[in-house]
Amino acid sequence: MKLELRGITKRFGALVANDHIDLTVEPGEIHCLLGENGAGKSTLMNVLYGLYRADEGEILLDDEPVRFHGPGDALAAGIGMVHQHFMLIPVFTVAENVMLGHEPTKGGVVLDLPAARQLVAEISQRFGFDIDPDDVVGDLPVGAQQRVEIIKALARDAKVLVLDEPTAVLTPQETDELMIIMKQLATAGTSIVFITHKLREVKEVADRITVMRLGKVVATASPSSSTTELASLMVGRDVDLTVDKNPPTLGAESFVVAGLTVLDSTGQRLLDDVTFTIREGEILAIAGVQGNGQTELTEAILGLRSGVKGSVTLDGKELVGASVRDSLDAGIGFVPEDRKKDGLVAEFSVAENLMLDRSVGEPFAKGMNIRFDYLEEFAQKSIKEFDIRTQGSDTLAGRLSGGNQQKVVLARELSRELRLLIASQPTRGLDVGSIEFVHERIVATRDAGIPVLIVSTELDEVLGLADRIAVMYRGKIVGIVDADASRAQLGEMMAGIHA
Amino acid sequence: GCAAAPEEGESGAESVDYKACAVSDEGSWNDKSFNEAAYAGLTKAEDELGVEIADAESASADDFEPNLSNMIDANCDIIFAVGFNLIDAVNAAAVANPDNHFVTIDGYVADESTTNLKPIIYSMNESSYLAGYLAAAYSTTKVIGTYGGLQIDAVTDFMTGYYYGAKAYETETGTPVTVLGWDPTAATGQFTDGFGDSEGAKNISAGQIASDADVIYPVAGGLFSATSEAINESGKDVVFLGVDQDVAVTSPEYADQVLTSVLKKMTDAVYDVIEEQVGGATFDATPYVGTLENGGTGLADFGTFDDKVSDEIKAKLEELTAGIIDGSIDPLS
Amino acid sequence: MTDPTPDTLVKPALDPDDQAPSRWTVALRDIVSGSPLRTFLAIVLAFVVGAVLIVLTNEDFLESVGYIFSRPSDAISAAVSAVSEGYGALFRGSILNLEGNSFAQVVRPLTETLRLATPLIVAGLGIGLSFRVGMFNIGGQGQLLFGAGFAGFVSFQLHLPFPLHLLVAVIAGIGGAAAYGALVGFLKARTGANEVIVTIMLNYIAFYLLTYLMRTPVMQDPTAGGTPKTPAPDVSAQLPLLFGDSFALNWGFVLVIAATVFFWWLMERSTLGYRFRAVGLNPNAALTAGINVNRIYVVAMAISAGFVGIAGVTQALGRTSGFTPTVDAGIGFDAITVALLGGSSAGGVFLAGLLFGAMKAGGPSMQIADVPPELLGVVQGIIVLLIAAPPLVRAIFRLPSPSARTAGDRAKRRSAKKGGVK
Amino acid sequence: MTAVISTPVVHTVTEIPRKWKVSIVLGVLSVVAFVLFGLLGDAREALIVFSETSDAIVLPNVPVTSKVLCIVVGILLLALAAVSFWYTVGRRTVPMWLIIAFTILFLVSLVTFTGAGSKIPVVFLISGSIALATPVIFGSLAGVIGERVGVVNIAIEGQLLAGAFVSAVVASITDSLTLGLIAALVGGALVSMVLAAFSIKYLVDQIIVGVVLNALVIGITNFFYAAVLNDNSTETNFPGTLPFLPIPVLSDIPVIGAVLFDQRITTYIMFVLVPLVWFILFKTKIGLRIRAVGEHPLAADTVGINVNRTRFWTVSIAGTIAGLGGAALTLGSVGAFVREMSAGQGFIALACVILGRWNPWLAALAALLFGFSKNFRIFAGQTGADIPPDLIAMVPYLVTLVAVAGLVGRVVGPAAAGKPYVKQ
Ligand SMILES: Nc1ncnc2c1ncn2[C@@H]1O[C@H](COP(=O)(O)OP(=O)(O)OP(=O)(O)O)[C@@H](O)[C@H]1O
Ligand SMILES: Nc1ncnc2c1ncn2[C@@H]1O[C@H](COP(=O)(O)OP(=O)(O)OP(=O)(O)O)[C@@H](O)[C@H]1O
Ligand SMILES: [Mg+2]
Ligand SMILES: [Mg+2]
């Protein structure tokens, strides 16, 4: 089926996420949509899918204008989508997830579960997926969930398939498998829109490429274009993602993690015998596909988890069993991976957020009273030093852009006397300018002789920042390598193959 | 809506310049029982004497005091505080407003020197004793039941009399009689969660019926309707006894289950007090105690059950009445 | 956006499934941001609905509707007089009694309003505090009963000289209620039990427990004859009258003003209040920032219940006679509506408590004017429902949407034109 | 949109932590039953009464020595507790059947102990419990459905009260019990619709709307009770009750017949609704969609399910069920409406929703347990057991509290319950 978008505009308040976007996808074509974080790719596809209502513009399928009032209409018209954030119901089985919305029934009322199972089995077999229809989706690894999403789309016989950053959660090997499937589908006549910002993938599968930046289509390119060419189209200037830093000046091994294991309430090992050390003045980066225990690792170090065994020492002080408060007092600065959920109180002002982890005693309080004058002074200083773009210290943190929210968290965490900095996904969702700033601050912290632990799923960031790299897979550290390791080697390690 | 408009200026009995007011205990006037009986005295005075009346229901104990003081502000000539729970509030009001006249029903005077507060109280154990004897005699299973709306003296007074009346039958005839729902020696028994708890009342009644009770004495205001429902559900031949008013008359829909009612003639007492005052009598604070002797309390007639109560029993009840009046029978033992 | 997979991991302190922040965020923002105009309009609207109910249940009006076409003026005048009599009585009972014979009689309604508002305000503060920590405390009734029970116990079982006795009784009441609140916080923190259900069950338990104790020598008034009732508090433990014998208003009101100021300081100025607010708005972030969220739940519930306990204290000690198990007089539940209406802020709750106190004070005189005071329950419900749903009030009165109107946004737009905030 | 996907890694389960709580509770209770009711129990005789003399088939009364039976049952309880320990040691969860069997046996022991020296009317104990549980079961079904679709229904109390009020008034005025029942459906649905509209359209917090609605329904019914019903109660508040509809033959079976087959239409509806709601939720297309909306509304939206419409109608229909519960309070029990007669049963229903883990069967069982504890108060009061009545009255609430805090604790409900769904 041929898909055509004409002049699609979508605003979120004052923000124009899509600005008069035109896009055509021919039948059987794999069309790549390339763009930085926040370029408006997902928004465009959500408009196509009927999830968002466009402010302007029209959609044509096989040259017929269509109007979608909701995803139901889009699905009926043959559009399938694998969403960037999976749209699976964790407590349902695979079969239930796949049939949801177009359930086979007996007599129009009672679910026909065998029929749904049959359908899942058939599709799995056709594409060589190893999926059991009766597995509960929440128990499946991410890669398998991804495949369930694809089965969902295929089960509805999608003529146009949108894949929104499907590779973000996949290992390189799984990515390769996915690309093969995409090619299979395209050959069978399905039109595919493939969203990513990984240039290698684009070059491998795309028939055509559309590049978006800041809500606009900035170019249409062919896969033969060079990587740097595509990159500068995407970013809007020449890119240099390397981080400027001097070789490390290493001090004592002040941070030691030994045999750290985390069990969840059902007894599963989320973290399995993790051991590493970081020296003063060194950055250790944890690489790995999302969901392999990185979150649990940082949370266990901070004291946010129960069921922790093993040992974590900072400057010789044991932190397993200590409270979060104790860990912070021991000198840990912590930048959580999800700043909105764990880093900030959105309804607090910038200033109030800056004292979140020091609400007792000096310097922000005197007795039970908050020292508002000191707080204001501190806030002004932080705003200036960290270039936080806000109307004032009393602006609510939730109203800041993502990058500035991150700067608030950094300003807070770096303002204490640190003995260890832990930063998870420090630049997720930030623009290039902010990324550079954050990287600079992290390197400066290292250069001040503080051990730094970075967790990032972006290989570029890991390679740019790290002095050493540890790769995690299924809760274990697969290996620790030097910063000059090759992408290929890291890729294999991320897939669980030992270096 | 096309009816003709009425003529202007119709009004009731010629009016006198006297205002009688009443404040209820927690609960509404239309409780088919205690409050209703007292309130009826007020409306009777309105109809027959032409006095002006005003009333206030109390939703909670917190309302007693404001309700009373509003009545004082509303220039009431006499204020009836209907219910045991109002004792404190009405005593305080009487002391604070020596020029107003108060009547407490079921209450007492806390301070001897108070001369503007008249208690109206009843010896309900006397008539209840008769009811207990009657119930025991009427019962074929020789199991009878009772329950209260709250475990307070104003309620258990009824139940105790009932218990000893039944036991009197037992001693007299030698037939063992089981009284469910109240044991005066241990002071334990069955009570609902207040006078509005019809669900509880129904279940207590159902439980007593399941244990073979065939006469039930609900001392719980209007909750007899729940007992009636329990009787209907059981499909058994069970009767109950009314309290306060003659239930067979005031709620005729239940007449075929009302063996008799134990009367607490508050309507008359309230009316009499107002009538006296309107007639110009000086306010007399001496307590009025309703007894079998002065007819303030007693059994109603047997209504539809008249022919089911043998003359023998009727005679016996007369005899007991006389005994209680002359003091030879103590209804509380 | 919700995660596609549930976080089945259990963090030590926080219920992972307790997604309270988002829900609470929305709710609290709604509540706390109630603009005065909207509140005013909601109150007006609720009284209009009340007027309609008065008219529809007025006998004269219903009679005259029967011949509305032959003489419509009757219906109209009946309606007008019913409403004006009803609301006139409300005014007379709660603000000024212009028919009064003496100054005292004229202004007594006002003091009655203050007296009845006293426990409502302070219980509302307590409930409001729990809201701001992200807990839904429906246990006002039980906490009030505990407060009254403990204060009462001290007031008639201990015998001490005047100011000391009163002081000890007040502290005992607050402490008793706070202990009860701490239990709720502990159960939530420790077992993850839903506090809505825990507090409701504890309401019943407190009621029956108190009733039981009032039948035992521990708390029974020996003269009450079987009735569950306490003895009168010793004079040395009673809250003294504020303006002499003509007015029932007592020092409890002053205590409550002090409590209101304390509440303001606690929530807006103190570090503890800061942590309460942080936990209420985003417990995850608070936990990550080293705040012991579980301990905050326990402490906050204790303080919340302590405030409600003050209401119990004024109920128990603001009288010369003993009290019964119904001493809470619905205040525990009304406090929830007061807190919602007052936006859980010190000033808001104070004003909301006054409004509800006025309605309570006006009830009896409405009754004399033959309008059931139950009407005020409807009016209160409608007010709070409207306050809770700002878009609805805006729709009814065609107010502009606030999103385009806040000062911040105007400033943002201005600066956006200038090329962004630098 | 920086939502973070954090998927726990799946590994082979190594050490499931042993959860002792259930076993310990059962252990303690079994020892209490064995020692207190059994060994130290009452040696008097209790007469177990299975049928009325008027029944079609009369089973003989069975006299038992209270103490002996309690010892026997106590041994069974100890055995069950031992089995539960065995499960826990083996790192397995104690199965539901065991907990249910234990509860029933414990109650048997309690009743036998209390009934020493008097009669134990079995039919009254069971059917009384069912009668007291009926409104709660209706309410909890409404709660289960509402939370399953993502709307927390604190307004069950208000729905019960509204259903009770309108059913009594309509049946009374029209003289038709059928119309009264229909009115109850409408009344419950109306309250639900306000709840749904405010929480779905106006995005007001669901708990707040629920609490306010309860207050409002109490206010409105109190007002009309005082302003209208009070003055002419025979016309407006004297509906009578629904007739009993014994099912021929079946109703003659001893005990079971009286309990299951000789009931009012409201009770029969309840018997049918519990399995029906379960079936609809878990076996039908609409049920799958309802649960999807309650778990992950956005995901449901992406497959073409209209989330808010599904929520609105599901909650509204659940409201009709709660409304019927209200009718069960009036037409199905005592007839006339009484002020605030729901008396907190809506909140108990809410507790049953959680105790029953959002499952209609378990919620109904929880409600039955509550009904039994209320009924036990009546039974104990009648046998003259000398426990202070105020303390017995406290038992149902204490049981609920202990169950919610002790046994259930941190259970996971529908993930999106309580959260509004906003579409861009
Ligand atoms: N629901 C929303 N409300 C407000 N703003 C939004 C919403 N969704 C997206 N945006 C904003 O619109 C812009 C485009 O977002 P979109 O998700 O389409 O980007 P993207 O190109 O898919 O980025 P990424 O590669 O990170 O997925 C961003 O600035 C984002 O913050
Ligand atoms: N809830 C909100 N209310 C008001 N303004 C908002 C809100 N959220 C975002 N904004 C404003 O909208 C603009 C765009 O925000 P957005 O988060 O999309 O920024 P961004 O382009 O992703 O920036 P960054 O790269 O720093 O994340 C910012 O100016 C921000 O202040
Ligand atoms: Mg995207
Ligand atoms: Mg951003």
TrEMBL record, chain A:
Keywords associated with the record: ATP-binding, Cell membrane, Membrane, Nucleotide-binding, Repeat, Sugar transport, Translocase, Transport
InterPro entries: AAA+_ATPase, ABC_carbohydrate_import_ATPase, ABC_transporter-like_ATP-bd, ABC_transporter-like_CS, P-loop_NTPase
Principal location: membrane
Domain of life: Bacteria
GO terms, molecular function: ATP binding; ATP hydrolysis activity
PANTHER family recorded: CARBOHYDRATE TRANSPORT ATP-BINDING PROTEIN MG119-RELATED, GUANOSINE IMPORT ATP-BINDING PROTEIN NUPO
Listed name of the protein: Simple sugar transport system ATP-binding protein
Organism name: Conyzicola lurida
TrEMBL record, chain C:
Subcellular location: Cell membrane
Annotated CDD domains: TM_PBP1_transp_TpRbsC_like
Location (main, coarse): membrane
Transmembrane segments: 39-57, 116-135, 166-187, 196-214, 248-267, 296-317, 329-355, 375-397
Keyword Repeat on entry: no
Top-level taxon of origin: Bacteria
A GO molecular-function descriptor: transmembrane transporter activity
Keywords assigned by UniProt, alphabetized: Cell membrane, Membrane, Sugar transport, Transmembrane, Transmembrane helix, Transport
GO cellular component terms listed in the entry, alphabetical order: plasma membrane
Pfam assignment, any one: BPD_transp_2
Membrane topology label: Multi-pass membrane protein
InterPro entries membership: ABC_transp_permease (IPR001851)
The protein's name in its UniProt record: Simple sugar transport system permease protein
UniProtKB/TrEMBL annotation, chain D:
GO MF entries: transmembrane transporter activity
Top-level taxon of origin: Bacteria
Record GO cellular component, one term: plasma membrane
Listed CDD domains: TM_PBP1_transp_TpRbsC_like
TM region(s), chain numbering: 20-40, 68-89, 96-116, 122-144, 151-173, 179-200, 207-228, 268-292, 312-338, 347-371, 391-413
Topology class, membrane: Multi-pass membrane protein
InterPro entries the record matches: ABC_transp_permease
Location(s), subcellular: Cell membrane
UniProt entry keywords in alphabetical sequence: Cell membrane, Membrane, Sugar transport, Transmembrane, Transmembrane helix, Transport
Keyword Cell membrane found: yes
PANTHER family (UniProt xref): GUANOSINE ABC TRANSPORTER PERMEASE PROTEIN NUPQ (PTHR43370:SF1), SUGAR ABC TRANSPORTER INTEGRAL MEMBRANE PROTEIN-RELATED (PTHR43370)
Protein name: Simple sugar transport system permease protein
Lineage: Bacteria, Bacillati, Actinomycetota, Actinomycetes, Micrococcales
